[in-house]
Amino acid sequence: MKNLRALRALCVSGGLAFAAAALPAHAQQQGMPGMDMPDSAHADAGGSTRAFKAADERMMHDMNAPEYTGDADRDFVAHMIPHHQGAIDMAQAELKYGKDPEIKRLARNIVKAQREEIAFMQRWQKEHGGN
């Protein structure tokens, strides 16, 4: 369990927040050989799983929404904003359902950092005639 927490933290801090959301479900299914463990195996799995899945779906939808323009800067910013918002949504689910104080601290830091980066990218878009 400690290794799973470390891996989850590494994924989230490395910008792979979506991978961290998938880890608990995968780890649950690795329980006993030949036995699938449903999401309900954990007390908060229903709420947290729904929150993580909703964040994933919203992020993937929003990342697919902007058209590519061929301008690397504009395309990068347009697709990174929903990616960062997805990280915020997942971090907020962690803050609501999580128990580990270190991971909750990480989630708070992610929310703060990603909000600042989104604000920067939105300012950049306005200054450069984007969205």
UniProtKB/TrEMBL annotation:
Position of the signal peptide: 1-27
Domain DUF305: 42-124
Xref: Gene3D superfamilies: 1.20.1260.10
UniProt keywords, alphabetically: Signal
Region (Disordered): 30-49
InterPro entries the UniProt entry points to: DUF305_CopM-like, Ferritin-like
Protein name: DUF305 domain-containing protein
Protein source organism: Paraburkholderia podalyriae
